[in-house]
Amino acid sequence: MSDFIRVAIAHELLHGHVMSLNIKQHGLLCVTGGRLYVTLARSPEDYFLEAGDTLGIPSNVHAVVETWNHNGTGLAYFEWTDATFQHPLSPSQTSVASQSPLALAE
Questions:
Q1: From the first residue on, what is the mean pLDDT of each consecutive set of 10 residues in the chain (106 residues)?
Q2: In terms of pTM, does the model score above 0.70?
Q3: What are the structural domain ranges in the chain?
Q4: Which homologous superfamily does the CATH classification assign to the domain defined by 11-85?
């Protein structure tokens, strides 16, 4: 049994909103609900993701994430898991979100 857990940071994105992300460490973006449209800097492709889809994103990349819904309403939910970040288990620990390698762009 491992003494480490992977930390996933959950996000909710309202329809019509855009989130700008500066990815510090490579990891996985996993859509847990709704649909997302993802654009990565220096990538010739854009990505249309639905619930259950996962996209690997390399380190030091700027990503733009927005909802992608045909009916013009709804939310999208996704989680970010840094592929290299592991945190030791601790019964007294309540949150490691402040140590997230994912930074929202200002």
A1: 58 85 88 92 92 92 87 81 56 39 42
A2: no
A3: 11-85
A4: Jelly Rolls (2.60.120.10)
